[in-house]
């Protein structure tokens, strides 16, 4: 593509297949994306990204040497720097999975998840326990993700999961996998904790299955 706007970045680890898969998921949450399946041997990933309000498409290319190039046309020069910053954060998020995940929050979430998997969803009380544990797991995961960007105890320990999601989405421009589902599970938990409301089986199954899926991707 002939373009006067180019931003090269080196992103160690981005060529890992799991990281590329996560990159594609994250980009698809922020842009309308068309992935190019026909790419040269020195390239691992290539896509065209579009967004409402963006005058021209943005191209991203990931090379086998972990170099990444973001490109576009001069028509978006005024916002190109901001787009590059956003995509750099997405790239960082994609390779974060290669970090050592031996953290207190992730380990705790994993232990709770393993216990939660064994709880049946037929009895009413057990369904309420499933939803409550799912909310705890998701709060731990969202807090861990937020801790990559802030060390403020007020943000990490005192804010609700909805506020933490808002900070990630709006302040740090980090796309979150299934944020509505995370908020919906918090609402189900609040109905239990504050009103003693029972949980329908389909709600408990939704909370359980969604939490497992989010744990694997968030």
Structure description:
The model has no long low-confidence stretch (mean pLDDT 89). Helix 4 (124-146) packs across helix 7. This protein has 8 helices and 5 strands. It has a 5-stranded antiparallel β-sheet with strand order 1-5-4-3-2, covered by helices on one side. It has 2 domains: 5-98, 2-Layer Sandwich (TATA-Binding Protein); 104-217, Up-down Bundle (Four Helix Bundle (Hemerythrin (Met), subunit A)), CATH 1.20.120. It has helices spanning 17-30, 77-95, 104-117, 124-146, 153-158, 161-171, 179-195, 201-217; strands spanning 5-10, 32-35, 43-50, 58-63, 67-72. By secondary structure, it is of the alpha+beta class.
Top CATH class of the largest domain = Mainly Alpha
Give the rounded overall mean pLDDT: 89
Number of strands: 5
Strand content: 5-15%
Total individual domains = 2
Q: Summarize the biggest pleated sheet.
A: 5 strands, antiparallel
Order of helices and strands: EHEEEEHHHHHHH
The shape is: elongated
The CATH architecture of the largest domain is Up-down Bundle
**Which structural class is indicated by helix and strand composition?**
alpha+beta
As laid out across the biggest beta sheet, the strand order is 1-5-4-3-2
Number of helices: 8
The value of Rg in angstroms is: 20 Å
Low-pLDDT regions? none
Distance between the termini: 33 Å
Indicate the CATH topology of the largest domain: Four Helix Bundle (Hemerythrin (Met), subunit A)
């Amino acid at each position: 593509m002939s373009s006067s706007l180019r931003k090269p970045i080196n992103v160690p680890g981005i060529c890992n297949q799991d990281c590329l898969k996560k990159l594609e998921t994250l980009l698809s949450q922020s842009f309308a994306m068309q992935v190019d399946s026909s790419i040269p041997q020195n390239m691992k990933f290539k896509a065209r990204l579009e967004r409402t309000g963006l005058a021209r498409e943005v191209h991203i290319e990931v090379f086998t040497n972990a170099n990444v190039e973001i490109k576009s046309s001069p028509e978006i020069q005024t916002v190109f720097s901001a787009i590059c910053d956003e995509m750099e954060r997405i790239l960082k998020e994609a390779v974060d999975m290669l970090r050592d995940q031996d953290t207190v929050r992730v380990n705790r979430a994993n232990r709770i998840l393993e216990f939660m998997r064994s709880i049946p969803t037929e009895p009413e009380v057990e369904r309420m326990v499933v939803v409550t544990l799912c909310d705890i797991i998701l709060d731990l995961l969202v807090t861990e993700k937020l801790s990559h960007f802030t060390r403020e105890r007020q943000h990490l320990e005192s804010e609700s999961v909805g506020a933490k999601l808002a900070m990630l989405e709006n302040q740090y421009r980090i796309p979150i996998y299934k944020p509505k589902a995370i908020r919906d599970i918090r609402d189900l938990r609040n109905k239990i904790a504050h009103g003693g409301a029972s949980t329908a089986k389909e709600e408990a199954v939704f909370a359980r299955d969604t939490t497992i899926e989010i744990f694997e991707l968030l």
